[in-house]
Amino acid sequence: MNYQDFKENIIKADDIIIFSHVNPDGDTLGSMIALYLIIKNNYKKEPVMVVAGEIPDIYCFLPQIDKAVTFDKIEKDRVFDLAIAIDVAAKDRMGAGVPIFDRAKVKMNIDHHKTNNGYGDYALICPDACSAGEILFDMFESLKFPIDKDTADALYTSILTDTGGFRYDNTTAKSFRIAAKLVECGINAGEIARYCFETKAKQMVLLQANALINAEFFENQKIVCTCITNSDMEHFNAKEDYTEGIVGTLRQIKTTEVAAVLKEVTSQSTKVSLRSKNVDVSKIAGAFNGGGHIFAAGCTIQKPIKIAKEKLVEEIKKYL
Length: 320
Ligand SMILES: [Mn+2]
Prior knowledge:
- By secondary structure, the protein is of the alpha/beta class.
- It has two domains: about 5-195, inorganic pyrophosphatase (n-terminal core) (Alpha-Beta Complex), CATH 3.90.1640.10; about 200-315, Diaminopimelate Epimerase, Chain A, domain 1 (Roll), CATH 3.10.310.
- It has twelve helices and eleven strands.
- The site of manganese (II) ion has 6 residues, from loops.
- Manganese (II) ion binds near residues 27, 87, 112 and 131.
């Protein structure tokens, strides 16, 4: 897809829907809102923004986020003129929205994941972009759409969160150049960083402290893992996203080669997040039909959490 295709399809469509991905993060939400604002401000059309599941509290500062709805709010047989998936690596990452996407007259796919297969009628996949927000910034600038403060807030959130606060290897000179332009649009960079990285619910901090104190170490402390059960979640009255960040903290430990967080889904199913410093954890996740990146991957093991932990540790040992 080229930028003109984007513009022409927006002009043609009356009824537009924008999809974010499951377990929504700052990039998918920020870029969804930026798209919504650009379409609304320039074409006087109001797209439907749809999210799969709960929006983490930290992103409630985003402008217009309260306009986003869940799939159950959309009429069963509604056919949209244009569906846009943003930051959605694979179609099934839309969750329950896939049938709505498939029914749309024109399907558009804008993403930066290397593994995106280009689904849809129009695909704009830029694997070198640090975030979906970066792709949108380039497009909006090229099409000469004015970027107001709200749009800049949303795009900055995309770039800031997907680069881990400009710390990950996907941070480039271009990421900083775009960030600088967004700061010139009037955003408050310090305030957005505080919302994204420095704000946690009390129960989240307590759940995380509990998970850290229960961490177990193997192989001369090269492997560290912790288990979070449903009863832990209940005890701390935790929301799903409260486990976010624990695995990163475990990786920070000097001796860690591979860190894992195991989360009970049901009595027979366990979700695993993996992080490493050198080991290719996508291979470890792959052994359990999961996947991801070299230093960050995940999988679901169809075993009770304790057995899943034993199997996982055995698997990790093969890669040390
Ligand atoms: Mn992204």
